[in-house]
Amino acid sequence: MQSRFILIQPSHAGNVGATARAMKVMGFDDLVLVDPRWPNVLRRQETIQRASGALDVLDKARIVATLDEALDGMDHLCATAMTPRDFGPPTRSPRAHFEMLLKQELPAQADAAPEADLVSKIPEGVAFLFGCERFGMANEDVYRSHVALSIPTNPKFGSLNLAAAVQLIAYEWRMALGGFAVEASTPPPVRADARQVGGMLAHWEQALVEIGFLDPEAPKKLMPRLNQLFNRAQPLQEEIHILRGIAKAMSQVAAKAKPATEEEPND
Fold first, then answer.
1. Could you write out the DSSP letters of every residue in 202-230?
2. Which residues contact 61 (CB under 8 A, 6 or more apart)?
3. Residue of 240, 202, 239 lying closest to 223 (CA atoms)
4. What 3-state class would DSSP assign to 63?
5. Which tens digit of pLDDT belongs to each residue from 68-80?
6. Beta carbons of 21 and 161 less than 8 angstroms apart
7. What's phi and psi for 81, nearest 5 deg?
8. Which is it for strands 31-34 and 2-8: parallel, antiparallel or unpaired?
9. How far apart are CA 206 and CA 221, in angstroms?
10. What is the pLDDT of residues 153-207, one digit of tens each?
């Protein structure tokens, strides 16, 4: 399924760059501009700066004169129109519409044949249409769309920046398609094995003797209890290194605390 983001008559170069960035982080790269204010908008400095590394999306982007050209190959059109129209396509939230679309549960259009209760074909190309920053989408562009996507916002303040709206739609569409796995920023922890725990305990036994906490002549059950404690704790390898460092520090402190050996008298 091809996913295309179409900006109709964008008037701010920065929004074009920010749109490219929003698309790339969600894994999309098909951007078409219809009659932008600046003919060279894809090469303007503000566009490049706001793209923040999504230059490949800008390089692939196309500029066309009409919306018909931008819609070539698309068979499902999603308008983004916050202002209600007197008539036209149904208005749905992006999440609800995408779920219905992919599950093939969209009601047929009002002028379809009566037996066509549900749209049973997943489209090959989905286009998301965004109007210009100053005037939004024209009525005729909304009317030709299959749905008007309305992002659920604060009823008292629903004004969204163009690039922010693209980011939200791109996120919802990516999640509907399956999303991306969340990758950990750090490598997975590795638990210490029995040998590493045993080596650490031997190091601790030596240090505990040196600081006078453990009597080697009467050790009782101290070390076996510590062994059980660390088995329950299941320490990581990094934690074993910390514990060995503590044992080393204890030995160093104990060595410094020993009284200096008196020198032998000279003959």
1. HHHHHHHHHTTSS-TTS-TTHHHHHHHHH
2. 20, 31, 32, 33, 42
3. 202
4. strand
5. 999 999 999 999 9
6. no
7. -135, 115
8. parallel
9. 15
10. 888 887 889 999 999 999 999 999 999 988 877 888 899 999 999 999 999 999 9
